[in-house]
Design a protein that fits this description.
Blueprint lengths: L1 H79 L6 H123 L4 H29 L3 H5 L1 H16 L2 E7 L7 H22 L3 E8 L3 E8 L6 H6 L9 H11 L3 E6 L5 E8 L6
Parallel strand pairs: 1-2
Antiparallel strand pairs: 2-3, 3-5, 4-5
The protein binds adenosine-5'-triphosphate and magnesium ion.
Organism: Caloranaerobacter azorensis DSM 13643
EC number: 2.7.13.3
Enzyme class: transferase
Length: 387
């Protein structure tokens, strides 16, 4: 049993880690997509700037080509008519043509470089866009997969947690059974067994006194009758505690009413039992379940609620019996409390109530909040089957 609990804890841990790492993976893919998007954006900006530069340069080259052509023409005219020009003029025209030629060559080189760079950027952009597209597709796919997976996994981990709690409940039930046996044994040992031993001694005394002192014998017999009567009471109490026979003898509703009355006497909490509809006697297992759940609800009210008033409403419909046990006490945070259930500290009362009701295909619900009292509501099909 212990080994199983450890295994379930371990599986639970593995499931949690798996969901965590899937989530992390999703974040990483998201990061990749994000940086691909940024890369595309910056390449586009760079490309835009480059295109502007290229078009400026093309215009400059155009202008320069015309200037250079003119300078060559001028040089030709001067060389043909060099008699009309000074040496200074010739040198100037020559230098000018040569400078323009060099400048043009440089600009053309620059233009070629820029165009190459533009081509390079365009290729990079195409590749980055491909990565981006892939990453975006992956983000969507992983998102869908994750939704399926983490949905199922967390369902599974809830189921496992539920199983775990049921296991704990099983242990608790076994422990409670053992304690109950010990208690009954102790009750019989301390009560009736002791008394019967006493009875044996006293009858022996009577035997001996019979011929000597008839009056003394009468007293002893009276004494004996009291002891036997007390023992009978003790035995009846032990039997009642084991199983409220009165359900069979008195019927369910009178038993609940009597239990409510005794509870009220013992605790000072006012109990009202309200019966709605025609209550018919049901299968014994249904009646005993209803009684045990009401009993645990009242136990909790006594132990925890600080209530002044309790109402037990028992409503019979065609197919179901619906019971509401409502108190006006301090209330509690149901979800939080149920999470705290463990073997050491207990808190199996509610779990046990739910388990009993669900075993008979019933429904169980607690409505409570701090300061607003508590209602335990449960519904069980009368014939013990689903409707
Ligand atoms: N009527 C109520 N009013 C206020 N608090 C309640 C009421 N019923 C239950 N609780 C709270 O819910 C917790 C769980 O109840 P549950 O019956 O499961 O366990 P328990 O009574 O503490 O222990 P056990 O029943 O195992 O002896 C209680 O400890 C208490 O804090
Ligand atoms: Mg309890």
């Amino acid at each position: 049993m212990k080994k199983n609990i450890v295994n379930i804890n371990r599986i639970n841990e593995i499931l949690k880690k798996t969901i965590d790492s899937i989530n992390k993976g999703k974040e990483e893919i998201f990061d990749i997509a994000e940086s691909a998007r940024k890369e595309c954006e910056s390449i586009r900006i760079e490309l835009e700037e480059l295109k502007e530069k290229v078009s400026r340069l093309v215009k400059e080259v155009d202008v320069l080509e015309i200037e250079e052509k003119n300078s060559r023409k001028k040089l030709m005219v001067i060389s043909k008519n060099f008699k009309f020009y000074t040496e200074e003029d010739i040198k100037k025209a020559y230098d000018n043509a040569k400078n323009l030629q060099i400048l043009l060559m440089l600009k053309r080189q620059e233009e070629r470089d820029l165009i190459n760079k533009r081509r390079e950027l365009e290729i990079r952009l195409i590749n980055a866009e491909k990565v981006l597209k892939k990453a975006e597709k992956l983000v969507t796919q992983v998102g869908v997969a994750l939704e399926y997976l983490s949905g199922d996994l967390s369902d599974l981990s809830e189921t496992i947690e539920d199983m775990h709690k049921k296991q704990l409940l099983g242990i608790k039930i076994l422990k409670a059974q053992e304690e109950e046996r010990q208690r009954v044994a102790r009750d019989i040992h301390d009560g009736p067994a002791q008394s019967l031993a006493n009875v044996v001694i006293k009858t022996e005394i009577c035997e001996k006194l019979l011929d000597i002192d008839a009056n003394k014998v009468r007293d002893e017999l009276k004494n004996l009758k009291n002891i036997v009567r007390e023992s009978l009471k003790d035995i009846r109490k032990i039997i009642y505690d084991l199983r409220p026979m009165s359900i069979d003898d008195l019927g369910f509703i009178p038993t609940v009413k009597r239990y409510g009355y005794n509870f009220s006497e013992e605790t000072g909490i006012n109990v009202e039992v309200l019966v709605i509809g025609q209550f018919k006697s049901m299968e014994s297992i249904v009646e005993i379940t209803l009684f045990r759940v009401i009993q645990e609800a009242l136990n909790n009210i006594k132990k925890h609620s600080k209530a002044k008033n309790v109402q037990i409403k028992i409503e019979t419909t065609l197919k179901n019996i619906i019971v509401v046990v409502k108190d006006d006490g301090i209330g509690f945070n149901v979800e939080k409390k149920l999470k705290e259930t463990n073997v050491v500290e207990g808190g199996f009362g509610i779990l046990g109530m739910r388990e009993r009701v669900e075993l008979l295909n019933g429904e169980f619900q607690i409505i409570s909040s701090i300061g607003k009292g508590t209602s335990i509501i449960f519904k069980i099909p009368i014939d013990g089957k689903d409707d």
